[in-house]
Amino acid sequence: MNGGYTVRKNIVVLSGSPRKGGNTDMLCVAFTIGAENAGNSVTLFRTADMKIGGCLGCGHCFKEKGICIQKDDMPPVLDALRKADALVLASPIYYWSVTAQLKLAIDRMYPLISVKAMIKRVGMLLTCGNKNSDVNEGAVFMLNRLCRAYGWENAGIVTAAGLHNIGEIAGREELEEAAMLGGKM
Ligand SMILES: Cc1cc2nc3c(=O)[nH]c(=O)nc-3n(C[C@H](O)[C@H](O)[C@H](O)COP(=O)(O)O)c2cc1C
Predict the structure, then answer these.
(1) What is the pLDDT of residues 63-98, one digit of tens each?
(2) Which of 128, 131, 136, 158 to mutate to test the pocket of ligand 1 (most atoms within 8 A of CB)?
(3) pLDDT tens for each residue of 123-168
């Protein structure tokens, strides 16, 4: 609450899991329910279902007011990011990092350096097979460096470890943690 009214936040979730209905999807659903119950609005992009090319490093976005030269599925994501108050990166860990599908979208956020977004806070939702969640260190390192580069505040990271099969996260406390993160973005 702020002066007696609720401030509705626009949250963009970029999810990198290719597996529909998988553990990462379920974390995203829990996050979204928590966020919407708190009066926020959530726009989720499943990057694995989208046509997103790798950044060409051409510098076009620096010369042309943040416009990317590639006409694929990324420009609407950039539009949404420019209107967002908060960003959440969600991914299963693939080889100690986020999935390639999510990393493509992250690299394509390069235009946000020249024409800034109004994002203030970020969060992360991660799932991994290993029981020891130190396999997430690469992804967490990247998030913290993104925060430093863009001046974002890290609002929280939810990590669900030891997951292999689709839907295995059902009943786990990390779903509640994701909902709580959604509420406090
Ligand atoms: C290609 C591939 C690479 C993976 N690499 C790792 C890894 O390095 N560390 C780990 O703990 N789990 C790894 N996993 C397991 C997934 O992170 C884990 O099962 C996750 O919960 C899957 O999420 P999903 O249900 O959203 O697909 C990998 C899975 C796949 C398919």
Answers:
(1) 999 999 999 999 999 999 999 999 999 999 999 999
(2) 128
(3) 999 999 999 989 999 999 999 999 999 999 999 999 999 999 999 9
β-pairing verdict for 41-46 and 10-15: parallel
46 in helix, strand or coil?
strand
Q: Which of 91, 93, 164 to mutate to test the pocket of ligand 1 (most atoms within 8 A of CB)?
A: 93
Contact 91, 163 (CB under 8 A): no
- Closest ligand 1 atom to residue 91 Cα is 26
DSSP per residue, 63-126: HTTT--S--SSHHHHHHHHHH-SEEEEEEE-BTTB--HHHHHHHHTTTHHHHS-----EEEEEE
Q: Which domains does the chain have, with CATH numbers?
A: 10-184 (3.40.50.360)
Residue nearest to atom 30 of ligand 1 (CA): 94
Any ligand 1 atom below 6 A from CB of 96: yes
Alpha carbon of 36 to ligand 1 centroid (Å) = 28
Q: State residue 1's pLDDT score.
A: 47
Residue 133 confidence (pLDDT): 81
The whole-model pTM stands at 0.96
